[in-house]
Design a protein that fits this description.
599 residues, Spore Coat Polysaccharide Biosynthesis Protein SpsA, Chain A, 3 domains, six-stranded mixed β-sheet, four-stranded mixed β-sheet
């Protein structure tokens, strides 16, 4: 590679120009013009809006029923403290501290439940603490650096914030070894129980959709252990910071009224923690947790129902430490309707007065991609969190730069070939920009090479799923499941980022062009053509074991492959172009099956 040049253009968007030092490889864009792109986009947008309106009506009706049951509690719990309460809740000014705040976060639920309000929770942190050192913890074996681990969030969920210059890192905790801690009790707990969790975690290697569930005791232990190392504050993506969070030491746990409204998938109650590094209170809590939970057998950890509040309060009392977060979070357990109340409602101002954070409610954990009601306090605060992100590591990331502005095309709400879809999938489709770059390569055809250089562009972010965070299968065998937005990063209208898919079977699988164009009529394709003999030999080495077991050399395997393809296509050829294409797809599928069996 002699030179790689990145540039922007109004017509083509992101351009990649590469001058290769070697011969035998050609890289080019396929820029397909569509005269009816505008009309097609208008039809798709109209369909999406109608689906969203219907779902809004349904949700509004369900909320009215739920709120009617809670009205008495709401009236007594959140009565206005004073007629002069501020009427326009808003995020406070960003922190002026010169020391970056350490923020630890994790998401213990299914990654499919991570939705719009959860991103807003992170954005509120970055708005109030633009220099924050944010660590998002995930538990996965070493392959989690290159694959999404089971059903959990992956290392690529937050790349767009990192590329803009924010200090957001995803920290992988390996179940084979204890998380690093500076000192204290509890480390042996993970050493003993780590192998118990490891076996279930490793099942995900052969099944990317497997449900991975760490025991609640393990999740709590990891949170406390990381806080003991890092200090700062812990958030779980369900609470929205309202003001800078320095100088706190304490905890706030969701009351029973909140927990009762959660789904059975919630293993730990929502919480906010704030501690110093090497805090003796945390050491006490870790030791108490270790003595509470016992290892019953080789694959069984016995732990009673965790009372996190009792666990932490006993340690605070032991060290005579005041809990500064005791009343710092507006949980609104009995009055979730206030989240949808208008900002001028006096009860809203009373509920948020003096609070550090606001819990976004069960909706922040249900994966429904439900936008806050327009004009409500929740909508206003989340919008401020989004607009407060003003840092750009490169000028092209700013949507105000018209030369490098990226157009957002949303996913088709219902996959092609289906008459209906699930409401939350339609909503997720309407909130995310579909991939703009497709690399329909072939195995050992340099698609990974191209993705490596695309990823260096300041406006390109990886998929969040698939082999090497490159090959998603979203437009292949996973297409009919209607979950395409779950394979790609969350990109919104003015994020000015693009993503793509580089699965090696995209070029060799029927119907993928139509599927891709339905989601994004303006998508660009990058084809890489490699010298056929070199590619075939490289592929032979890649799947060498399949041929070695049959005792076949490259020469023998190549001759048989050509013969098999000729037999499949037929010597007489097809009557027309469409029939030839059908035969090609069928023969490709047959050839793939032959390779799996070692020819």
């Amino acid at each position: 590679m002699k030179k790689v040049k990145y540039s922007c253009g109004a017509r083509t968007g992101l351009l990649l120009t590469a001058t290769l030092a070697t011969t035998g490889m050609v890289i080019f864009f396929l820029l397909q013009e569509n005269t009816d792109v505008e009309s097609r986009l208008a039809e798709l947008e109209a369909t999406k809006r109608k689906l969203i309106e219907l779902e809004d009506e349904n949700l509004a009706l369900r909320r009215k029923v739920a709120d009617a049951r809670n009205v008495p509690n709401a009236a007594t719990t959140l009565a206005p403290r004073s007629p002069t309460v501020p009427l326009e809740p808003k995020l406070a000014s960003s922190s002026s501290s010169s020391t970056p705040l350490a923020v630890t976060m994790d998401w213990s639920q299914d990654g499919m439940y991570f939705a719009l309000s959860n991103y807003r929770a992170l954005e509120a942190v970055l708005t109030l603490h633009s220099a924050a050192d944010v660590e998002v913890d995930i538990v996965a074996p070493s392959y989690g650096d290159w694959y999404r681990h089971g059903n959990l969030i992956s290392k690529r969920y937050f790349d767009k914030y990192k590329k803009r210059g924010y200090g957001v890192q995803v920290h992988r905790i390996d179940p084979d070894s204890a998380p690093r801690r500076s000192k204290g009790d509890g480390k042996s707990w993970w050493h003993v129980r780590g192998p118990v969790f490891k076996e279930s975690l490793r099942d995900a290697i052969s099944n990317y959709n497997i449900e991975v569930r760490l025991p609640s005791a393990a999740m709590l232990w990891l949170r406390l252990a990381r806080m003991q190392v890092r200090g700062g504050i812990f958030l779980d993506f369900t609470t929205l910071l309202l003001k800078p969070a320095e100088g706190h030491r304490g905890y706030s746990i969701a009351p029973p009224g909140c927990i009762a409204a959660l789904t059975s998938d919630a293993r730990l109650p929502p919480m906010v923690l704030a501690f110093n590094q090497n805090d003796p209170v945390l050491e006490c809590a870790l030791k108490e947790l270790e003595s509470t939970c016992k290892l019953a057998g080789k694959a069984d950890v016995q732990c009673p129902v965790l009372d996190v509040d009792r666990l932490l309060s006993s340690c605070f009392s032991r060290f005579s430490v005041a809990n500064s977060l005791e009343h710092a979070v507006a949980w609104l357990c009995e009055s979730q309707s206030l989240l949808d109340a208008p900002v001028e409602d006096p009860a809203v101002g009373a509920a948020l007065q003096g609070r550090l954070a606001l819990w976004l409610g069960p909706r922040a954990m249900d994966g429904m991609w439900q936008r806050a009601v327009e004009g409500s306090v929740s909508a206003a605060l989340q919008e401020q969190a989004k607009k407060g992100l003003t840092r750009y590591a490169h000028p092209s990331q700013n949507a105000a730069d018209s030369k490098c502005r990226v157009r957002c095309n949303h996913y088709l709400p219902v996959p092609l070939g289906k008459s209906s879809g699930k409401p939350h999938e339609a909503r997720a489709s309407a909130e995310n920009c579909a991939p703009q770059v497709i690399v329909p390569g072939t195995r050992k055809g340099a698609s990974s090479f191209i993705f490596h250089f695309l990823a260096q562009h300041p406006q390109f972010v990886h998929p969040v799923d698939g082999s090497g965070f490159k090959e998603t299968a979203a437009y292949l065998h996973m297409y009919d499941k209607g979950r395409r937005p779950n394979f790609f990063p969350h990109l919104e209208e003015n994020d000015n980022f693009i993503t793509g898919d580089g699965h090696v079977d995209l070029m060799m699988t029927e119907n993928t062009p139509e599927r891709i164009q339905a989601d994004n009529p303006a998508a660009k394709a990058i084809f890489i053509l490699r010298e056929p003999a070199e590619r075939a030999y490289s592929d032979y080495k890649y799947v060498y074991n399949a041929f070695r077991d049959k005792g076949k050399s490259f020469d023998t395997a190549a001759r048989e492959a050509v013969s098999n393809l000729e037999k499949c296509l037929g010597a007489d050829g097809a009557a027309d172009e469409a029939a030839t294409a059908k035969k090609f797809w069928r023969c490709h599928d047959w050839e793939q099956e032959i390779v799996k069996r070692g020819m």
